[in-house]
Amino acid sequence: MQTRRSVRGTSARNFKGGLSLWLILWLVVMKPGGVAPCPKLCVCYPMPMTVSCQSQNLTIVPAGVPYDSQRVFLQNNRITELRADSFGFETQVLWLYGNNITWIEAGAFSNLRVLEELDLGDNPSLRHLEGGAFRGLEKLQSLHMHRCKLATLPHDLFHKLYSLQFLYLQENQLHFLHDDLFSDLVNLTHLFLHGNRIRTLSENVFRGLVNLDRLLLHDNRIRQVNRRAFRDLGRLTILYLFNNSLAELPGQTMKDVQGIQFLRLNDNPWSCGCEARSLWEWFRKARISSSEVTCSSPSQRRNQDLRFLRELDFALCPLPDPGSLAGSTTTTFSTKTRWWFSKHKPASSSKSLYQKSTESVKAFPFSAVKPQYLPKASTESFPSKYELSEAEAALPKVDQEEYWTNYGNEDSSIRCFELECPPGYDDLAFPSSSSLPITLSFIQFFSLTVVTFSIHFLFG
Known about the structure:
The protein is α/β, with parallel strands linked by helices. It contains ten helices and 20 strands. The chain has helices at residues 2-30, 251-255, 277-285, 335-344, 351-363, 376-381, 390-393, 400-405, 425-429, 435-459, and strands spanning 43-45, 50-52, 71-73, 81-82, 93-95, 103-104, 117-119, 142-144, 166-168, 190-192, 200-201, 214-216, 224-225, 238-240, 262-264, 270-271, 289-290, 295-297, 319-320, 329-330. A hairpin with a 4-residue loop joins strand 1 (43-45) and strand 2 (50-52). The chain is rod-shaped, with a radius of gyration of 37 Å. The N and C termini lie far apart (176 Å).
């Protein structure tokens, strides 16, 4: 009996062992829909399913990539073209940087419906993109196209990329950006455009970027920024504009980025004449971390920091007319400036001369060239775009203690404001030692003449 039982136990164990081996062979070899083999020259890893084909001198996207691959690495090969049938798998991360891609067919990525990250950086031969190159990537969150020598971007390149959050376009050769280029990128938070050749920022270039947090525009050639270029960037916290060609930046432009925390404007040829007043006023109210804003002109303010100029440095500057979009000016002074003028009015800046100079600025608000047909006094009395006038350069320096002691009581010594004063108020409000005796002599002479004629008329 014991021998029979031992034989039966041994047979059962052998049967179970054979069954287990058969099941393993069936799962590996015979199971329908089993794991596809890894493409040639690639290495595959499970959980998450990853296909790595990097640095294999591949010239095309390899065939046979498993459909359920979550990550596909094809970087550092020699792939030259991406066609609509290049990708037949469903993946979330696709790296193609460091290849020789020269052309991407419209719809090349349309089968990658769940793609979240696409890296096309470091493809120096990729100089042009078709408008529909990224069609279908509505779940894409990160797009890398740095160092590709891109010269232009089609106006509809980012159409319907509603999920995009990170866009890397730095170190290309972009000269300009189309209006509404980023209008569909409502969830974009990081935009990197530094290291290009961009010259201007138009009114609608950043329209739609309502969630943008970081905007890097340094190392370009930007000379002009439209006053409304940043109007949709209310959530912007970091703005880099250093190392450009900016001489001025409208203060209204910065008022639209009320959430700004870090600002870099250094290494620009800033002009700190009257055109800098609005930016200087914005800095007075802003509470941000900022780089220095070093003046390049006029010569009297070279190497000074625009942020630390005083209100008296802009005492002779007309303020922008708030009702005009063309930038025309008025001679309305701030209360502090009016008070200072009542105490320290320069002899060379009479009101009549100042009004003439203001008229010339209204006629030529953006011109640094003196019109030949204007009166000589009109063109020379008002400071040109980059140089201070003699009156402004000779502006006396008020004692700092006196200036701030009277702060808030400026109007106590002023009977009327500049443009509201009656004719001749200059001589009454600011009499000089030489003009007062002359005025009294004239009155005495006039009175004597009247008396003489009256006597002659009465007595014949």
